[in-house]
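Possible regression after last week's pipeline update?

I re-ran a chain I had predicted before the update to compare outputs. Posting the input and the new output here so someone can diff against the archived version. Not blocking, just want to make sure nothing changed silently.
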Amino acid sequence: MRKAAFVYDEELGWHTIVEGKVFNPTRLQYTYELLKAYNAFDESTSILVKPERADESALLSFHTEKYVAAIKSFSRGESKFNPREFNCSEHGDNPTFPGMYDVSATIVGASLKAAELVAEGKADVAFNHAGGGHHAAPGCASGFCIFNDVVIAIKYLLAKGLRVAYIDIDAHHADGVQDAFYDTDKVLTISLHETGRLLFPGTGEVSEIGVGAGKGYSVNVPLAPYTDDEIYLQAFDQVVPALVGSFKPDIVFTQLGCDTHHIDPMTQLSLTTAGYEAVIKRIRKLAPRWVAVGGGGYEVSVVARCWTLAYGIMIDRDLPDEIPQSYQELYGLKRLRDSEKPHIDSRSREQARRFAEESVAGVKRLVFPYHRL
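New output (post-update):
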């Protein structure tokens, strides 16, 4: 029987970054509460696991000593370091805030716990929805990401001799993860995202395929604005199953950002909850051993619904569309799934379709030969 774990500490959902910032940690708490309302943790096959803060040695497996020291200092409100040197600013994506080290290190600890549970056979799938900091670099923060829990957790798995396929469905390119494993064939990184020509971080072209031993193991599928469920799923189906099947990973590691949704305020893709759910079901088939983390998502009601749907698939439960009354009364959400699709004019949709076809063709031309496909 399939065993699932949800790794979470309620304190992660209530910390404050900066008032008014679009990246709202309370989305974590809303998701957790929605899953509780569905009794998602009441079965012997689905357990709730509290994480521990990652120790400094784990952080230093990827980040520089100076950067870790700076984050500790900012966390205490000190002025020993210049925040700009580490891409931190009150006016940007990466503000400093009290307790930022403890919170960020606990997020890393949660992803490490998820990886450990799966690697040691204590769970078939483990989900840390607080994780997914795929932009953070060794010496600086980026895109709301302080520490790169994804890279640190994958490094943990590699140290155990495991091959990892990384699939990232966030609307933003997984630049930090790609860069970390750009020269190795031990990790297959696949990122489907809105084209960097229009969206942060400005990377993720099809031509970015790796170097040295890693050539052919970095895979990018950039997509145009107004990419809908059908176009997205076609692109996914033509690239991901074949590459993962050829790579034969020991563990599939996924970043499940849901900022691809059509009402997300920061992106221009046009997926619905139906499309998101369909992607997660496809990943489920590819991943008998599966570590999952969260990621982007800036409309709180969408995030809670999408990640609840995702965990429902992980525990093999078809969650009812009507949200439990207790949650409705608290937050006003009545339906788990979207009732309507976005309206996309024919010209925009055709442009999105052609863009996706070109991206897929590019991957097949530049990457598939390295995998004898």
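Follow-up from reviewer: compared with the archived run. The chain has one domain: 4-371. Marking as no regression found.
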